[in-house]
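User: Fold this; tokens only.

Assistant: Input:
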Amino acid sequence: MNKVFYIILIVGLAFLVYSNYVNKSIDTPSSTPNRSTPSSIYSFSEDDIEVESVKLDKSNKYAYRIYGMVRNKDNRKLKGMVKIKYLNASGDIIGDTKTYVNDGDYFSIGQAASFEYYGDPKEFEGVVDFDVVFSEL
């Protein structure tokens, strides 16, 4: 009977030590930021991203090009897309598209990364302005 008691005691203590270790590893935040954290968990404000120089290039009669820059003013590397909304003279959205920023690669703090989209000229009929919104991948 003494032998069984000591086995149960050792197993119980081992379980307590293990559960204490697991709880500490879950509750302790990592000291380094996780770069793969989804944007739904880590949010940033519009002050962290600046959309610059959005232009429409009509020089090719077969495909117009929307292009511009996104400046990273956040405190970490970013990776993402822009949603480009096409606006008419009344400010109504008459179309939209998405395209990668920096070809889908990360861009550093302070860096401006480019985006561009090519579309059929018919797609831009009635478009007078664009609303560009960055979203993180």
